[in-house]
From TrEMBL:
Gene3D superfamilies: 3.30.70.330. Belongs to the universal ribosomal protein uL23 family. SUPFAM superfamilies: Ribosomal proteins S24e, L23 and L15e. It comes from Gracilariopsis chorda. It holds the Pfam family Ribosomal_L23. PANTHER family: 60S RIBOSOMAL PROTEIN L23A (PTHR11620). This is Large ribosomal subunit protein uL23c.
Length: 101
């Protein structure tokens, strides 16, 4: 009963990979971080990543990041909230986030 998700919604679920010092260290352990749609659940995220990158996911964790207050001079604004997904892949699989020249 695996239902194929249309290609357009796959791209809508996965927004962008999160690349920081900590996440680049996690890549060595075969874990990747992505910003995903706030309303997406773990099963939708798993199907989207497996179909987009052609990998098999071992484990997935999600975190809701709240909006934060930011100040520029006298003006106060907010960074938007988002959901972060931490994905652990099985051993033979990996995702190419950086292009080799």
């Amino acid at each position: 009963m695996t239902k194929k998700i249309p290609q357009k919604t796959l791209i809508d679920i996965i927004k962008y990979p999160i690349l920081t010092d900590k996440t680049t260290r996690m890549i060595e352990e075969n874990q990747y971080c992505f910003a995903v749609e706030v309303k997406a659940n773990k099963l939708e995220i798993k199907k989207a990543i497996e179909q987009l990158f052609d990998v098999k996911i071992q484990k997935i964790n999600t975190i809701n990041i709240k909006s934060k207050k930011k100040r520029v001079g006298k003006y106060i604004g907010y960074k938007s909230k988002y959901k972060k997904a931490i994905v652990k892949l099985y051993d033979p699989y990996h995702i190419e986030l950086f292009l080799d020249n």
